[in-house]
Amino acid sequence: MRTAEDLLRSSQWGQSLSENEIERALAGIFERTYAAGAFICMKGEPVDYWMGMVSGLGKMASHWTTGKTTSFTGISDGAWFGEGSLLKNEPRRYDVMAIRESRVAFMNKHTFQWLLDHSIGFNRYLITQLNERLGQFIGMMENERLLETDARIARGLAALFNPVLYPGTSRLLQISQEELGYLAGVSRQRANQAIKVLEDAGLVRSEYGGINIIDLEGLRRFGD
Fold it and tell me: 148: helix, coil or strand?
């Protein structure tokens, strides 16, 4: 079973640390398991931890008291998230919900700050991570405003293969059409229709337990 230590040592930033720095980082990390549908963190709460997805699948979203919800992005194996709010020292501005049972690593703020003060590699990783996240959200805004549903789902699938943000994603994406609907903010039925369109275009293939990505670049360009 994959552990928080496995996640740390396989992460780009973890590979830049000395063994002493790794031990210091591990001392500031603990794990929690969340059932499908549970909130990993919530909008408005204090930000005391940086988080990494050890295993599972989460959704970054915003849930309003009016009942309206907007989905931002998925969080898959190997992804670290929450550094922006931690660096700005502000209340969290989004929710993260487990779409399936998920195990999450939590690094406390003190350890995060210690790495910022002592590791050049960690700082370089964070700069790259923040730049990739900015590009991701600019692309999402463009897709939301300019593309129809099938193309948005294609781009959303492709976004899960960003090697910086989601280093643990394989071409056989272990995601159900219901889970894909949650990520895209559409119904399971609408997600199913989109997958059939993408299959007909030769970009993906539905398989037992997931979706096989055949043409990743095609997904990234779909709808142009």
Answer: coil
pTM score:
0.84
Torsion of CA 17, 22, 26, 28, to 10 degrees: -70
Asked if residues 175 and 56 have their Cβ atoms less than 8 Å apart, the reply is: no
User: Is the separation of the CB atoms in 78 and 169 below 8 Å?
Assistant: yes
d(CA 52, CA 79): 6
Question: What are residue 81's DSSP bridge partners?
Answer: 51
Q: How many CB atoms lie within 10 A of CB 1?
A: 6
* Sequence-separated (6 or more) residues with CB below 8 Å from residue 182: 59, 71, 99
Nearest Cα to Cα of residue 123 among 92, 87, 162, 168: 87
Higher pLDDT, 165 or 143: 165
**Single-letter code of the amino acid located at 87:** L
Question: Over the chain, what is the mean pLDDT?
Answer: 90
The secondary structure of 17-60, three-state, reads CCHHHHHHHHHCEEEEEECCCCEEECCCCCCCEEEEEEECEEEE
- Cα–Cα distance measured from residue 76 to residue 78, given in angstroms and rounded to the nearest whole number: 6
Burial (CB count within 10 angstroms: exposed 0-12, middle 13-18, buried 19+), residue 103:
buried
